[in-house]
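Bench notes, bay 3.
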Amino acid sequence: MNDELEHIWSRVQAELAAAVDESTYRIWLDALRARDLSEGRLLVEAPPQACGWIHDRFGKVLQSCAATVIGPDVVLELVSGEPRDKAETCGNPTQSSDGGWHEQRRASDSQSARADVHAGTRAAAGGVRSSGPLGNPKLGFDQFVIGDSNRLAHAAALTVAELPAQAYNPLFICGPPGVGKTHLLSSIAGLLLSHNPGLVVRCTTGEAFTNEFLGALSGGRTDGFKTSFRQVDVLLVDDVQFLERKTKTEEEFFHTFNALYDAGRQIVLSSDRPPQDLQALEDRLRERFEAGLVADIKPPELATRLAILRKRAHHDHIELTDPRVLEAIAERVTLNVRALEGALIRVVAFSSLTGRPLTIELATEVLDGLYPVSTGHRRRGPTSVGEIQTAACEHFGLSTAELLSTARTARIAWPRQVAMYLSRELTGESLPSIGRHFGGRDHTTVLHAWRRTTARIASDADSREAVQKLCDQLGCERR
C-alpha cells in the first residue's frame, strides 16, 4: 500500500470506527485492507472466510464511509484476501444515483456462504474452547427443525450469531431437557466461527464453569481462570441453573458476566427454567439474566415432532415403505427431541436385528414397550395445573382452599402431594412455577412431594390405584 492510499484508508477506517460500535469494528472491519484506488474504484481486501458476510452486512456503511472521505462518485469493491490472480469479488457493487450500495450477488457466493456454515470444524480448531457438547459441528442451524415451539429461540439465536453483541445481549434460552437448547448454542458457535475464525468463542456448561473455578481456587490459579473467561469475544454457557446455591461460583460468574457485558462481548445462556424461576440464584445475577432477551422453547408439537423424525430418517438414510411408522412415533412420544429420536432408533434397530420389515405393526409393538398407552386413554396435550388441582379436589373430597392451605394433616397432605406429582408428570411447568400454583411454595417442596409420591405408588397398590384413577379422570397417561 503506497503512502497516499494508506493515508486515505486510515481516514476511511476512522469513519468506520465512528459508524459502528467498538466490538463490531474490532471483530469484522478492523481486518480490512485497501488494495488499490484507481479510476474512482476503491479495492478493499477482506479475509476470505468472512468476505461474503462483510459484503452483505456492512456493504452500505463501507460505501458511505468511503464516499465521505474520497467523494460521492467512488465505488468500493470488496474482494477476498487471496493472491491477486485468484481473488474473487465478494459482490458486484454498482453505484446508484444516490451513491448507495447495490449488489448483484453471484450464484457461487450463496453456495460459498452455505458451505461456510459447515466449516465450523475447521474454524473451531483455532477459535473455540469447548467443554461438553457445545461447539459440536453436527449441531448446526441447518440441522435444527423449526416449529411453533422453538421459533422465537431459533430466530434470536440466528440473530446473535449474525450480529454478536448488537441485538440481544445477553440471550437467555430456557426450556425443559431435550428440546434443543444445546443445539442452538452449538449452532451459534459454529456460525460465528465459520464467518470469522479469529473470534475467541468460549463454550462451557454451568457444571464445567464451577469445577474449573474450584480447581483454580484450590490451585491458586484464579488469575488464569479469570483471563480464560473474560478475554473472549463470545461466551456460551449451557445449563446455567447449575450455579444455584454455589455462593463463591455465583460471585465469580457475576463478575465475569459484568466484565464481558461492559466490554461489549456477547453472552448466551441456557437453562431448564426462566430466570425468575431460578430462586436459589442471587438476585443481582438473576436480574442480569432477565436484562436481555429471554426466549423459551417448549416441547415440540406434533407437526414439529414429525418433521424432526423425517429429517433424522433422511439424514440416516432410513428407508421407510410405510410413512405411518413416523406418524406413530410422533403421536406417542411427546416429551422431547431426545426421546423422539431414541424411539426411532429403537424401532429401526428392532427391525434390523429381527429381520422384520419396518411396518406400523412393528413400530406399535416396540412403542408399547417404551410408551404404553392405557386402554381408551392415549395421552393428550399438556394438562394444566389448575385442571389437576380441580380433579384432585373432586377425587379426594377437598376444597381448593384446603388443597392450597398450609395444613399438614394426612387427609390434605397426601392429595396435595399427588397433585404436585401429577403437575410435574403431566405438564411442562417448571418446579418453581408449580410451587406458585400451590400457594407460593418453594420448588424444593414440589420436588419433595414428587419423590414421596413416586416412592409411595411404587410400594403401595392402593396409592398407585388412586393416582391411576386421577390420570384416567384427566384423560392422560403418566410419563
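Next record in the batch:
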Amino acid sequence: MRNGIAAVLIVKNEEQVLGRCLESLAEVDEIVVLDTGSGDKTIEIAKEHTESVFTTEPIVPFHFAEARNRALAHVKQDWVITIDADEVLTPGSFEAIRKALWRHPGVSGFNVNFVLYDEEGKNPSRLPKLKVFRRGLWAWRYRVHEVLCSLAANVRTKDLLQAVIEHRPVAGKDGRRGQNLELLKLAIEENPEYVRNVRQLGMELYSRQDWDGAVQHLTAYLLSNVADRLDRSETLVHIALSHAMQGRYEEAVQRFDEAEAIAPERREILYHKGVALIKGCYLDQAVEALEKCLTIPVNVQPEFHLNLAAVWDGSAVHEALDFAKAQITEAKARLAAQQAQAKRE
C-alpha cells in the first residue's frame, strides 16, 4: 500500500500497559510487535491486536537500537510510527499523520508532539520528537537512549504537532531505569563521540543519589560543548542540586547563578535554587530567589520540554515562598522569646 503506515514496538513484560497502547493504534495499516523475552502475558495480549507478533534471539548485553532495527525488518508498509508500550497515539493523530504524508511528499520524517507524564499522570511536559519516518531511510543507533539516524543525505523532517503521542508510565516503571546503568557505561565505551550518553549517565547517577558521580558526568557533558543553551542551564541546575544535597551550598549557588546567566528567562532555575536554600536553612536567600522568580514575566517562558507548569502559574513558587517566610517568622519569634527570657533572668 502506497504510504501505508505501520506501528512498531519492541516489548518485554508490558502486560500492564500494552493493551492500552495497541487499542490506540486501531487505525494503522499494520502493527508489528517484537518481543525481547517476556515472562508475562505480553505476547498473548499482542496477538489479540495483530498477527505480526515476533520474538527475537536474546541480545546480551541488551542493545535497544539492535532490537528496534530487528523489529523494523518485519515491516511491510512505507511508513513507520515508532511507539513504546507505555505510550498512546491520541485520537485524531492518525488522520493528521495520514494527511501529512500526502501533503509533504518530500519529507521523510515527522516530529510529533510528544507529551510526557509522571507516574501519577500529572506534570506533563512536551517536546517535538521524531516518531514517524519513511522505512528504509532511517535506522536506529546506540545501545541505550537510542536515536534515529538518517541513511541518506539531505533527508527532510517536519514538525507535525497536531499528531500527539503521550507517554503514560505506570507506578514502578521508573524503577526499571536502573537496569540502564551498566548499558550506559558500555554505550559510552562503544561510542565516546556520542556525549549525550554522558549526560544520561549523570542523570542516572543523580536518580540513584550518587551525587559526586552525577556532578562528575554532568560536568564532563558540559565540557563537551554540545549542549544548547537551555539544556546547558538544566544540566547546571542538576549539578547545583547535587552539590546542595551534600551541603555544599556555596558551590550550589555558584552553579545556579551560572545557569541563570545562561537562561535568565527560566523561572525553574530560581525555583530550584530557592527550594535548595530552604532545605539548607538559608531562608533569607531562599526568599530572595523565589521573589525574583516571580518577577520573570509569564510571556517570556521559553519553548522547552522541561518547563514546570506549577512554577509558571506561580503555585509552587508561592508555596515555597510562604513556607520560607513562615520559617523566618517562627525563628524571629523564638529569638525574641529567648531574649525576653534572658532579660528576666
